Amino acid sequence: MVNAYSFDGIIIFVLLTICTCGYMRRVPKLREWFLSEKKGFAGIFYKASIIGTRLSLVVAISCVTMAFWLAFLR
User: How far apart are CA 20 and CA 53, in angstroms?
Assistant: First the structure.
């Protein structure tokens, strides 16, 4: 189990947020509901969706690496 306040937990949370927002960006209705704000607190999700779509290969490699690290090296 990963502690939410450890560095590992923060990395996992950020990766999951980026992956989820990147997926929501590809679904038109979800994009309209959740990613319409570009500033403020809700703007964080918009920016995460931009990162998820533009750096999708890097994000995917990071997710696989983190899953391997958690499963076998922890």
Answer: 11
User: What CA–CA distance (Å, rounded) separates 61 from 74?
Assistant: 18
Please tell me the distance from the alpha carbon of residue 18 to that of residue 24, in angstroms, as a whole number. 10
Residue 16 neighbours by CB distance under 10 Å: 13
pTM: 0.82
Do you know the residue count of the chain? 74
The span from the CA of 35 to the CA of 31, in Å, is 5
Please tell me what DSSP assigns to residue 39.
S
pLDDT digits (tens, 9 = 90+) for 6-47: 888 889 999 999 999 998 888 888 888 888 888 888 889 999
